[in-house]
Design goal:
Elements: H1 90-94, H2 146-149, E1 177-178, E2 191-196, E3 202-206, E4 215-220, E5 231-235, E6 237-238, E7 245-249, E8 258-265, E9 273-274, E10 276-281, E11 297-304, E12 310-317, E13 320-329, E14 332-340, E15 349-354, E16 360-363, E17 366-367, E18 373-378, H3 380-384, E19 392-399, E20 407-410, E21 428-430, E22 433-439, E23 445-449
Parallel strand pairs: 2-10, 13-20
Antiparallel strand pairs: 1-10, 2-3, 3-7, 4-5, 4-8, 6-7, 8-9, 8-12, 11-12, 13-14, 14-18, 15-16, 15-19, 17-18, 19-20, 19-23, 21-22, 22-23
Length: 450
């Protein structure tokens, strides 16, 4: 899904056995927090474990009714000694985001931006108790929505969108196994799991069907205003063990380059139904750039559209130059890449083509001994000379030998279906202009001059 390219640090979980006996001591892992009089740790109201899991008498804190520490961060007390106005409800206590205990400390030992913030009604910090409430009084957007409860990363809702609306970077989840981001119990669309192997073979798995001859339909999404012309049908066969349906999309024939929507046909001639994604196992794609590919180079990546349906992103190219490292140094841009489906010869060249014109810059690549890997450097003079001013885009190609068809430099061989907003590079300023490498909507590498 690149590597793709966030790990959450778990907060030390305090247990009774780990807690020192003395009233003036604090357990290790929490001892780095500033101390208040009596040895109590400042900012306990923000501890992720919640009050219900906190041992009585932690760090000598005076006890209130029900064993809850009294006066945590100066918060008014509710029933059973529970602080009022912490995420609004008891649910908010168990859902406090991890990492609050590590936040910088403000007055009275509370994390900055909580107890140190202006107070609202009931003593709750402004901006917390006033957060719009979701089901059961949970603040909306703080692991309180249905999507958050089902384990969807909070960043998904803010992820950059691909051209037809798919959140980019979903396939970058650790391990390469991506969970469906939608969990609406009212959704009646069927759901399909899929897994892809190193050869590009995709296995789909669906729940049992009531009809005798269900099929899977792949439709190449037509360009805007054009009719659909390319369809691919797969028979769905029931498993003997549990009756679930499965279909296999073999590596050959290679699918045309584009975006393929996936449908269920309950039976031949029936109305087709879009499929929601289940689990997508993309682990074999993560290191796909390490395997040399023959010609033609065919790539498939299952992904999720913005409206939450399953689709495939595909490429099919006679040869392909896979971009890897992009370095910026001394006001110049250096690209490292590897050729698939062809080999570099001594007269190989790299070409920068100014989009919409016949202007071409020719560079000499530095080739590896195997005739596959290479690198090249482009400087300000290559990108701005002869009228190539601001507001222009250079597309990058490599010609493996004189007279050969130019091969596009792109990044396709991993699990990221849309990387334009995933891999973002800084601009280099030189001679009154700025140039920046970026990936297009087709994952091709280009350089923008502005």
């Amino acid at each position: 899904m690149s590597k793709p390219e966030n790990e959450m640090t778990s907060t030390h979980e305090l247990t009774t056995a780990e807690t020192p006996e003395g009233p003036a001591e604090v357990s290790e892992g929490l001892a780095g927090t500033p101390q208040r009089p009596g040895g109590a740790r400042e900012g306990l109201a923000g501890t992720p474990q919640g009050l219900a899991r906190m041992p009585q008498g932690v760090a000598g804190t005076p006890q209130g009714p029900g064993g809850a520490p009294e006066g945590l961060a100066g918060t008014p007390q509710g029933p059973a000694g529970m602080p009022q106005g912490v995420a609004g409800t008891p649910e908010g206590l168990s859902g406090t985001p991890e990492g609050v205990a590590e936040a910088p400390q403000g007055p009275a030992g509370a994390p900055e931006g909580l107890a140190g913030a202006p107070q609202g009604p009931g003593g709750a910090p402004e901006g917390v108790a006033e957060t719009p409430q979701g089901p059961a009084g949970m603040p909306q957007g703080v692991a309180g929505t249905p999507e958050g409860l089902s384990g969807t990363p909070e960043a998904v809702a803010e992820a950059p969108q691909e051209p037809d609306g798919a959140p980019e970077g979903l396939a970058d989840a650790p391990g390469g196994v991506v969970v469906n981001p939608r969990s609406d119990a009212r959704d009646t669309h069927p759901r399909a799991h899929c897994a892809i192997d190193a050869d590009g073979r995709i296995t789909f798995r669906l729940p049992p069907a009531a009809t005798p001859h269900p099929q899977l339909l792949l439709r190449l999404r037509p360009k805007k205003g054009r009719p659909e012309t390319t369809l691919h049908l797969l028979d769905l066969e029931p498993d003997r063990a549990d009756g679930h349906l499965h279909a296999v999309l073999e590596p050959l024939p290679a699918l045309d380059e584009g975006r393929w929507d996936v449908y269920l046909l309950p039976e031949p001639g029936a109305e087709r139904r879009r499929l929601r994604p289940g689990l997508r196992d993309l682990r074999t794609l993560v290191d796909g750039h390490l395997r040399d590919r023959p010609s033609p180079v065919a790539v498939r990546i299952p992904y999720v559209t913005k409206d939450g349906f399953l689709a495939l992103r595909t490429w099919r190219r006679t040869a392909h130059a896979e971009a890897r490292a992009i370095g910026i140094e001394d006001r110049a841009l250096t690209v490292t890449a590897r050729l698939h489906g062809a080999e570099l010869h001594e007269d190989a060249t790299v070409r920068l083509r100014l989009r919409g014109t016949d202007t071409v810059r020719t560079l000499r690549p530095r080739a590896d001994d195997d005739g596959k890997g290479f690198s090249f450097t482009a400087g300000p003079g290559d990108l701005t000379a002869d009228g190539g001013g601001a507001g222009r885009i250079w597309d990058l190609f490599v010609c493996p030998t004189a007279g050969a068809t130019p091969i596009r430099v792109a990044r396709l061989l991993d699990d990221v279906a849309d990387r334009k907003h995933v891999h973002v590079y800084p601009a280099v300023e030189a001679d009154g202009s700025a140039f920046r490498p970026y990936y297009t909507v087709d994952n091709d590498l280009a350089i923008e001059v502005r």
